[in-house]
Amino acid sequence: MAALWIAIFVVAFGTNVPTPLLLVYRDLLGLSSEALTGAFGVYAAGLVPALLLAGPASDRFGRRAVVVPFVVLSIVTSLLFLGASSSVLVLFLGRFLQGAVSGVVFSVGTAWLGELDGDPARSARWTTAALGGGWAIGPLVSGLMAQWLPLPTVLPYLVHVALMLVGLALLPRVPETLAPADRRAGLAPPTPGLLRRPFRPQQWINLGVPRGARIPFLVVVAPVAIGVFTFPSTAVTVLPLLLTPSMPQIAVAITGLVAGVTLLTGVFAQPLGRRLGYVTAGPTGLAVGAAGFGLSLLGVASGAWPLLVPVALLLGVGYGLCLAAGLTMVGELASPTARGALTGTFYACAYLGFGVPLLLSVAGGDAGFTGPLAGLAVVIAVYAAVLALPAARRLVSGSPARVSQPGAT
What we know:
The protein is an all-alpha fold. The protein has a single domain (2-178, 205-402), classed as MFS general substrate transporter like domains (Growth Hormone, Chain: A, Up-down Bundle), CATH 1.20.1250. 77% of the residues lie in helices and 0% in strands. 58% of the residues are buried.
């Protein structure tokens, strides 16, 4: 299990290496705010379809057969980024491929790790530690390197490639968890049959949501999932753009620091999540994240960039509670033959949050981010209050009846 944890960690490390470098790319390539947030958000364009397809594919062919090729692609993508400083197209393509890699490795890797561990709550904590640790350390390292070392758009990626080679070397030690009989129990026919039967989209785009859990998933799990990456993505794009004039010569390093603090705080929020329980942790995470946005508005109004540190702490707690609560609920809801599919669906919802900075940029237009950010804070706070109501809590307080794979949507 440790070998798989390391592989997930180093892939997560690489996905956020470009995050603080976006300010460098902005200057080198002359990117507008919309282009900058778009370069960040295109990650989700590669990720969401990969999430929806990877889970059912791994339920069919096994976890290893799906994960290993995309771990290799993670290495190739980091090498591709070496040319991003002179090409907007390469920058966008690299982010798109990073999204595809993340969609596959995070969803299938999470299901794989959960099957190796056997305890949904504990495996959720392990997964959050791998993802949160990688997401946090990656931008922290790349931000510091880019601010004060030569070759700011080269060295961070070479560090990631070296780590990925270690992770790839460890993967053969991880046992496959789906026996051939388990794979045949899924919706799709065995591999040879695919050559003889007509293609059926529903066999490959399977959300994995049990019939009895559709309303809880839509009302509770999906909104909590969207909150997961709304908080860190806004912290590392919108807030540095708003406060860059207040932190000359250190903006790249501060962006990396904010990303690191936000994402690492999410890992350390797990004990609080366990104490609260997943029914309470979800709405609490949304509420704390909304409070972080409120404090960030105060920092923008006063030009006090040091407020980014407590803002990052609040947004990190919000992200961590939402992620842990959501993954635990997925573990409780999923049927054994659709765990990969439902995990992928959860992450697909979560990564919609990567599009929030672009929406804020478009909504604000020439007026900037401040108004839309205030509106977003209010919407999240209100929905957190709704999920804290007894009726909403009852939707997920019991374990919904699990159903077989054919009953999943």
